[in-house]
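Thought: the user asked what Calcineurin-like phosphoesterase domain-containing protein looks like in 3D. I have the sequence; next I should run the structure tool and report back without guessing.
Action: structure_tool
Action Input:
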Amino acid sequence: MHNDAEEQSRIKTRFIILSDTHGEPLAASLHNKEADVAIHCGNLTQHSTIKELHTTLQLLRAITAPIKLVIAGNHDFTLDDVAFENKLLEGDGMAGETLDRSLVKQRFGDFGEARNLLLQAKDEGIFFLGEGTHSLSLENGALLQLYASPYTPGQSGRGNWGFQYQDREDHVFNIEQGTDVVISHGPPHGVLDRTMERQRLGCPDLFAAVARQQPLLHCFGHVHRGWGAKMVSWRPEISKKPSHFTDIDNEKSVVIGSLFLSQNSDPHLHDPNDAMSKREEYRSTSHCEGEEIVLGNGKTLFINASIKGDGDGNNRVPWVVDILLPKSALNEKRIQ
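Observation:
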């Protein structure tokens, strides 16, 4: 736990966290929430069209927060020039026909147009982040050190998606010491990354990087059925090759909310009806704010903030999280 001196030097900062809105609007309930920082963890669109991107920008503008941090996801391939070009080449080869580039431009824009649209939103407090470390002085006086990455492992036969690397390749997630928040599109392997078929889609390299630096918060999306939050307690010694089997102390970790929440996964719920009630409560409030969650000192809060449900639209609301951040010596906002 933070001691009194540490807490006095830190500022409580509220985050609204969402992911995977896929170019669709959100329910009006989002607009009642206020925060110091909003985070969108990618898949801003479904088909990476300019129209969908405009819808997402309107969604972000409606959130009551002075700073909105945004990364891309695998569906946002027009933000990845190589993936965009590969999509066009793939389309040219289909049925031996050539794409009508004028129609492509009308639907998806020119190369770089989607990225420029997001970059121009900086004047509205919307910051589109590339992969790497960023530093931001917040309006509440706190300093936020964060690492962002849109990259996820690719799957064979799934086409040319954006910001992906093949499973056989290594991807370096260069999370620096002292990072408070990690924002990635995909989950780490072993944490809130299960599909309906119980398959784990998270990235082992991402898990290892997070385990070594142990930020206060790691938020992501990508795996819709992985929606939930888990407060992880790390073991005192981290393995040379970290994994969720060896480096998480599950006896001291807590599942705060999960679509898989059941009588067996929560020892405090003995009645299946209570479990269902609790799950619906999390679906309607999606919050883990409050003084009872103490982060740091060997604890990291993981959040899968996927908004999109299974075939029924954006039926989940964002997570709201309070975190104590160090005070900033700067007097103005800046992203590095």
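Thought: the tool returned a structure. Summarizing for the user.
Final Answer: Structure for Calcineurin-like phosphoesterase domain-containing protein predicted. The CA atoms of residues 126 and 142 lie 18 Å apart. The first strand starts at residue 10 and ends at 18.
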